[in-house]
Amino acid sequence: MTPNRGLALIRFWFALLGFLAVLFQLTHLLQNVPGASAGNFFSYFTIESNIIAFITLVIAGGYSWTGESPRWLELLRGAATIYMTITGIVYNLLLSNIDVNTPIPWINVVLHYTIPTIMVIDWLIDLPKTRVPVRTSLIWLAFPLLYLIYSLIRGPIVNWYPYPFLDPQVSGYGTVAVTSLAIAAAAFLFALIAAFSTRLHIAPTPVGVTGTTAAPPQPDASTIN
Hints:
mainly alpha; about 65% helix
C-alpha cells in the first residue's frame, strides 16, 4: 500500500481539533460550572464517541503515513464512524435545543457537526481493502449497547442522566424504552450501510485481460514454403 501522507496530516489535524475541543470543554466546566464533575462529563456519549474518534484518527494517520492498513484498524475506523454518526444525528434530531454541557459554540460545532462529518468522509474516501461481512459489523453495536446499560444503571445511583430521553423521571420508562430501541435500530442500519459500503471497490482488471478472446498465433512467414 502506498503511503498517503496528505491523508495522514489531515487525520492528525482533526484528531488534534477533537482532542482540544474535549479538553477545553472539560476545563471550562470544572472551572466555571458549580457542581460539574468529570464523571458526568465523561458519561456523555458525545464525549466518549469523540474520544474514540480522535484516537482512531491518530492511529489511522500513523498507518497511512507508512502506507499500512491492518484489518483491526479498518474495523476500528468503522466503529468510530458509526458512533460519530449516531452522535451527529441524535444531537440534531433530539438534543439541539437541550443543554448537553457543550455551551462553548465552537466546541459544540466541533463535537456534534465537524468530527461526525469528517469521520464519514474519511471512511468513504479510504474504504477497507477487503469487505466487512455483515455479521462482523454487528460487533460495532456492542459499545452503544454497553453505554445504554451503563447509563441506566449509573443514573439512579448518582441521580443524574446524560440525556433527557434516558431519564425515566422525565419521560417515563416507556419513552426511554421506545427511544432506546429507535436509536438501536438506527445504529443497526448504520452498521449495515458501513458494511455494504466496503463492497464498493471495483476489482482491477488483471494485466493482459481485455475481455475478448485472443486471436490464435499466426505462423511465421519465413516458415511457409
